[in-house]
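Ticket #4471: structure output looks truncated?

Reporter: J.K.
Steps to reproduce: submitted the chain below (209 residues) through the standard prediction queue, then opened the result file.
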Amino acid sequence: MLFWSLFSRGNKNIWLKVPGREAVETKITEVEGNLIWISLPRQEGQVIVLKQHDEVEIGFSFSEGYYCATTEVARIGNSHGKVYGLAIPERFERQQRRDYVRSKYSGTALFTSLTHNTSLATEIFDFSAGGIKVFVTPEFEKLLAKEKHFHVVFAIDSIAFSLKASLVWVKQKDEILYAGFKFNDLQPKDENILMALALKYSRKDTGKR
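Returned output as attached by the reporter:
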């Protein structure tokens, strides 16, 4: 999708991802010719310093999906609202399920069996917009032996999710047992928020769910 088709929808906030760092949300302050000017991006209070020709990824987040593209810092500005001028990419691609970013996150997830009315809490290992990976306790392992479909409640960045999930696999690695679940009947709004959060916490994790 073209930049102007996305920008004209009124979303002036974009996600900026520098290689090796978490994505941050920043604001488009002006579009000038072939440049997208953004304000000074910060991450946990620290200024993100970029140089001319640095490659970055930018993305728009909408209810129906996340659109991203790779570009570069074409110009360095000298005013408060025009710090980095990013070249307008030729096209933005909607991130598909197979391209979901998976990110590590520490938190608690509560699983409730859909047929046995049993609930157990466990710790999250990582998540994506498509599913969640958790640590398996002995009690949870027993439940997984007889139940594959759950209602799961968890929170990322204090944003609560209440979703249906199905067990995909149970694996042991380094004497630790993990389980991978895929989300079912995911609403576009939840998918979009999870995708943005996963991008924010993304790390170089190439394992497959």
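Triage note (M.O.): checked the attachment and the full token line is present. The chain has two domains: 3-94, 103-200.
Status: closed, working as intended.
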